[in-house]
Amino acid sequence: MKGGVHCAKPSLSWNEELSKERHVEHDHHHRELDQEGSNPINLTDGAAEKVAELIAAEGVEELLALRVSVKPGGCSGFNYDMYFDSEFADDDIVREFGGVKVVVDASSAELLNGSTLEYSDSLQGAGFHITNPNATRTCGCGNSFS
Predict the structure, then answer these.
(1) Residue 98 — left, alpha, or beta (φ > 0 → left; ψ -120 to 50 → alpha)?
(2) I want to staple 64 with a disulfide (CB 3.0 to 4.6 A). Which of 44, 84, 89, 145 is the partner?
(3) Percent of the chain at pLDDT above 90?
(4) What is the pTM of this model?
């Protein structure tokens, strides 16, 4: 964190329609890494339950995992990306929360380290939110961070 100034933690809403979009980007076999104490992102029980429900709704027999990544872009420097994936790279970090596999690529893991994915369903709307303790700045829309 530069200059000792820490802005509000970012919260990213994930539109449920995006959850139905699936990407298959890697042509590698799945390998779980057991890095001591390394949890790039944690899922709350509510988030794990909702992701499990959305995966079941996909109606496919292949193993689907939630891939969480950080991509360059947005007005603050980085954007979160979440989608279902069935292929994994050798350096992916794979964790399981409530029966849901979560996959994070090695470069995104550094930017997400210690983050939490939550799901809320309220009068203001339903959606997923990422709280990232590493973010030092967010944009007004809350979709990007630095």
Answers:
(1) left
(2) 84
(3) 51
(4) 0.70
